[in-house]
Amino acid sequence: MQENSEKEEKKEDAAVTIKEIKSEAQPQGKKKKPWWLITLAVVFFPITPFVLLFNYIFKKIKLSITTKTTIIFTVLFGVLITAYVIFIITSVDSQLNSSSMPDADGFLRKMKITSVVLVIVFVALGAAIGNISSQYMMTPLRRMIDQIDKVDGNNLSLRLDAVDTQDELNELTQQINEMLDELESTFERQSNFISDASHELKTPISVIQGYANMLKRWGKADPALLDESIDTLLAEAENMKRIVEQLLLLAKIGNLTMNKTRFDMTGVINEAVEKYKVAGLNKEITFSGGGEILVETDKNMLVESARALIDNAIKYTPDGGKIEVGCRRIDDGAVIYVKDNGIGIAPEHLPHIFERFYRCDKARSRAAGSSGLGLTITKSIVEMMGGKIEVESAENKGSTFKILLH
Question: Is 92 exposed, middle or buried, given 0-12, 13-18 or 19+ CB atoms closer than 10 A?
Fold first, then answer.
């Protein structure tokens, strides 16, 4: 009985929900026609019925734009010339009936024949003009359709040719090309994410599999091997987590929305540096400010990019080393710099350090916990803010990274 009662309640709830959805989906009364549309309908009353007729027919019958234009021109030319001819013939007929012109009937007959021919000619002319004009207007659109048909997942770099007009087609072409730019960028980010993830996760997965197999065979009876395996597995799992998080961030960067605010850059960066000072690092971290520097950008993005450079300096600066973080004004903006006296970067590596997964010394970078994505992400964030990043470095002497904001 209880089960039946519950089923009935569920049915009633479902019925109420469906009823609410239907009531919301129903139109909330007819939309009022604009006053200018009503005025046009009254002023051009002889044409209004034809417009309504065409609208009804074109909704019921699927026709090409060229065919629709040809029909409209044909009917309009035919109706106008027929009305004009009827008016002329009626006027002439009334004049002839009130006069004593010889052979009036013959003249009127010839005039009617001439008028019929004239109507036929004008109807044909209207059809020709409608067809030619529509063909002319549709040519760039057909060209656009042919080019769009060639766009697919393997050829997203194709763009529509510019339309040599100043009408809606030109605007449509620009919007389609902008949409294709965004699609290509999104598709490229997705492809890079898949490629990068498969490439970078191979090593930690192999290490985890190796230690898991070793534990299965010998680790149960060897406490030292068991401890080593557990520590390695935890470290590799943390490494994988960091790589996935950075890959996801890198994939989303192009779609992030900036929240611009006006703030004092010196105070914000100094606050970030103070948190490093209390972290108990075996490095000396100092901050050098140039007074209040007001900037207008995304505060969170700016702080994250500065932290990334500080983290990078900490990784590659030995214990006892020095890291200096500072802000100062420049002619057309402001600069944040992170300077260290760490291992530095060899000249042959400098052009590549912002590339995905690039590591100057792979063994040392992996030991330092680097995924090879930090600088890539930082550069992308800085460029989103409209700035640029620069680096100066000398091997075994240290590096200086600068974020330039304009």
Answer: middle
pLDDT given for residue 211 in this prediction: 79
Enter the pTM of the model: 0.48
pLDDT at residue number 28: 47
- 326 DSSP assignment: E
DSSP state of 30: P
DSSP secondary structure code for residue 358 in this structure: -
Rounded (10°) angle between helices 374-384 and 299-315: 150
3-18, pLDDT tens digit by residue? 556 556 655 655 555 4
List Cβ<8 Å contacts ≥24 apart for 41-47: 47/76
Contact between residue 247 and residue 373 where contact means Cβ atoms under 8 Å apart: yes
First to last CA, the chain: 74
Which residues have CB under 8 Å from 189's CB, separation 6+? 250, 251, 254
Answer with the residue of higher pLDDT: 45 or 25: 45
Predicted confidence at residue 371, as pLDDT, reads: 57
> What is the model's pLDDT at position 163?
67
Collapse the DSSP code of 104 into the 3-class scheme (helix H, G, I; strand E, B; otherwise coil) and give the result.
Answer: helix
Once rounded to an integer, what is the mean pLDDT over residues 302-320? 89
The residue type at 109 = R
Q: What secondary structure does DSSP assign to 289-316, as a single string?
A: --S--EEEEEHHHHHHHHHHHHHHHHHT
CA-to-CA separations, 188 to 158, 368, 374, in angstroms, rounded: 14, 30, 19
State the pLDDT at residue 11. 57
232-246 burial, b at 16+ Cβ within 10 Å, e below that, comes to bbeebeebbebbeeb
**Cα separation, 87 vs 89, whole angstroms:** 6
